[in-house]
Description:
- Helices cover 71% and strands 1% of the residues.
- By secondary structure, the protein is mainly alpha-helical.
- The structure holds geranylgeranyl diphosphate.
Amino acid sequence: LQPLPTHAPEAVCELDRLRADLCARIDSMFDAMLAPPEGPRARLCEAIRYAAIGGGKRLRPLLVATSSRLFGVAETSALRAGLAVECIHAHSLIHDDLPCMDDDDLRRGKPTVHRAFDEATAVLAGDALLALAFEILADPATHEDGAVRARLVAALAKAAGMDGMAGGQMIDVLAPGLVLDLEQVAELQGLKTGALLAWSVEAGAILGGASADQIASLNAYSSCLGLAFQIADDLLDRHGEEAKTGKRVGKDESAGKQTFVALLGPDRARRTALELAEEAKRHLDSFGAEADPLRAIVDFAATRDH
Ligand code: GRG
């Protein structure tokens, strides 16, 4: 791997602290929200808890928290928006692992939900998490202004649906039978992965009443971040270690998927990820040191080993 790009070391420490704190907070919020009911629904709750608690990098809530800091958003609002996007993310991972999609046995270092439970329970756990995301956002505890909550809900619905993640997943499912060029792979990944990352960054701006110009700069940052994150993901699938990623590696190539690494080769893919990280940071030039955590996140996303 290329050497890590340089940025303020304080921003990295600050980010590590913030992420550790956030992981604990997200877990305890899920724990409180997902009290197991009596009777047969307890199994569904158990599967949701299995998928949602105690795993993952929590990158999306971290993006919500760091963009929220730019606009002085109340901590509870940022945490609840982060929890909502993590629900959608967990939903997508459960469904993505199902036999009818990627048919994976391992996720976040443990058996996938349909392996640990069964397929019907996994489908329902994913559905329930999708619904829970919108329940969290629509609750006045997320923000006192109903118009702000409605904007968050509408933007997240778009990012998760046909014009976002589900649309990207459809192209991905069909991809082994298609010939995609670089632009089409970027479109696929922008929908499948980028839309949710972009929502996470924009959520802080919506909660904090940012200007249209500020939102445009953040969206430009997110486009580069999403691509850099996905190139790193493709590199991990090709060269990563299962022990670090917590999921099966080498599946893109065996499934015949056209990834950034397949199209560019690993060296150019690595260089492109670093260039995208630099471009992402240029889009933050209108912000001061308060945006350093967002700068550190894109460096991490482009060079990560997990
Ligand atoms: C939303 C209606 C609706 C359908 C979902 C299954 C599906 C349709 C979409 C799949 C989207 C998907 C699984 C994208 C993968 C994105 C990705 C690179 C996931 C890994 O993200 P990390 O590295 O994971 O942030 P952790 O485990 O750290 O949270």
